[in-house]
């Protein structure tokens, strides 16, 4: 079992657990903010504006916060962002009837999202030997899948016993608790990025990395289409669990895929693996255009997820290798930004297509997004090749 040596390494379980808990607020916000505002009597138009403000602020803030981590270290930035994000959520919870303050709170909570994902991915090369790094990224990717399963469940459980506003307080507490676990761990306190160039583009000066990030935007676009397609599909059919049930099958397939992927030792180069996994993802999304009946839709949802998390785990490795010295955290933050931006665009496009056409047309943009990813990976094979590149350019110091 290749995951056991990773989990036995010092601080790994602590960092995985803290990061997982600290990421829950982001997964909860998509439901918690709208529910709290609707309870306060807000219109759907304003609910959408507030949710969009949070998402845009998070997308813009991630690379900026990531750059601060690369320059100042993890501890202080994690703690400050956790407090700011908590203030943002609490503001929305306490004054949901004040539009200016709600938008301010949503913007602060989004922009100050603690960079736990990029921080953990920057730490992996210092936590495990190079031979176990692939399994470590697979564990990271599987934890990410579980976050987006547990987040909505945590919202539902809290709303069942308290008001939606309380969920926002719970998010604030979870964010601070998770960050405290990570930020006080030795590896996080000691981590320092290698000396970086003063180039204002940071990691974006690396052509191969930019190509990879655009590829991931295509994957995010496809995920955004799926989020809308399953809602439309469930409204017209009796499917156990409705749209959440369909997304749970997708997440389950993704989790199975990454656990299998991380349990093997691969000899194929990372760019080749990325191309093959993206082709598998394209197969699932192409079959989705057929909009099969529920008995066939269930295994198809598993198939659409099966290649997703392995592809993400592979790209985590590639980002770590392609990022210029001293820009690892910012590079991983750009990954989050591009993926989230693609997801938002995919949802918007699919909603517009479904409004004008049928389900088959509505499912087509997902396959289109993955097709762009496949074509870019094929066209950019030379840019993604990193002969003899070190696994990580991050170094540690004994400060703190």
Automatic annotation (TrEMBL):
Q: What is its main location?
A: membrane
Membrane topology (UniProt)? Multi-pass membrane protein
InterPro entries assigned: MFS, MFS_dom, MFS_trans_sf
Location of the protein in the cell? Cell membrane
Per UniProt, residues of the Major facilitator superfamily (MFS) profile domain are 11-390
Specify the domain of life of the species encoding this protein.
Answer: Bacteria
Keyword flag Transmembrane helix? yes
Transmembrane region positions?
12-37, 43-65, 77-95, 168-188, 209-230, 242-262, 274-291, 297-319, 331-354, 360-379
Query: What keywords would UniProt list here?
Result: Membrane, Transmembrane, Transmembrane helix
Q: What is this protein called?
A: MFS transporter
What is the species of this protein?
Streptomyces pyxinae
Organism classification, top ranks?
Bacteria, Bacillati, Actinomycetota, Actinomycetes, Kitasatosporales
């Amino acid at each position: 079992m290749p995951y056991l040596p990773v989990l036995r390494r010092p601080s790994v379980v602590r960092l995985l657990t803290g990061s997982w808990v600290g990421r829950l607020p982001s997964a909860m916000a998509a439901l918690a903010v709208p529910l709290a505002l609707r309870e306060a009597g807000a219109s759907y138009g304003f609910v959408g504006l507030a949710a969009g403000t949070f998402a845009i602020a998070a997308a813009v803030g991630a690379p900026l916060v990531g750059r601060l981590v690369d320059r100042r270290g993890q501890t202080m930035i994690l703690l400050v962002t956790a407090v700011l994000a908590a203030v943002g959520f609490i503001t929305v919870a306490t004054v949901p009837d004040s539009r200016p303050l709600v938008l301010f709170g949503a913007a602060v909570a989004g922009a100050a999202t603690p960079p736990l994902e990029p921080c953990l991915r920057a730490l992996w090369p210092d936590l495990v030997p190079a031979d176990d790094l692939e399994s470590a990224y697979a564990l990271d990717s599987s934890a990410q899948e579980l976050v987006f399963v547990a987040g909505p469940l945590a919202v539902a459980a809290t709303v069942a016993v308290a008001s939606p506003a309380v969920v926002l307080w719970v998010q604030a507490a979870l964010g601070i608790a998770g960050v405290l676990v990570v930020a006080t761990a030795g590896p996080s306190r000691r981590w320092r990025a290698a000396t970086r160039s003063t180039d204002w583009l940071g990691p974006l000066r690396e052509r191969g990395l930019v190509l990879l990030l655009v590829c991931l935007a295509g994957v995010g676009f496809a995920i955004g289409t799926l989020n809308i397609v399953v809602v439309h599909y469930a409204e017209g059919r009796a499917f156990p669990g409705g749209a959440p049930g369909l997304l749970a099958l997708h997440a389950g397939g993704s989790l199975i895929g990454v656990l299998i992927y991380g349990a093997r030792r691969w000899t194929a180069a990372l760019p080749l693996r990325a191309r093959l996994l993206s082709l598998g993802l394209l197969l699932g999304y192409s079959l989705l255009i057929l909009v099969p009946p529920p008995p066939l839709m269930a295994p198809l949802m598993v198939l659409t997820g099966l290649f997703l998390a392995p592809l993400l785990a592979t790209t985590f490795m590639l980002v770590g290798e392609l990022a210029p010295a001293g820009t690892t955290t910012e590079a991983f933050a750009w990954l989050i930004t591009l993926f989230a931006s693609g997801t938002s665009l995919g949802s918007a496009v699919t909603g517009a297509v479904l409004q004008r056409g049928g389900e088959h047309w509505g499912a087509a943009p997902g396959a289109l997004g993955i097709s762009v990813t496949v074509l870019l990976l094929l066209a950019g094979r030379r840019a993604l090749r990193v002969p003899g590149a070190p696994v990580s350019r991050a170094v540690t110091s004994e400060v703190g």
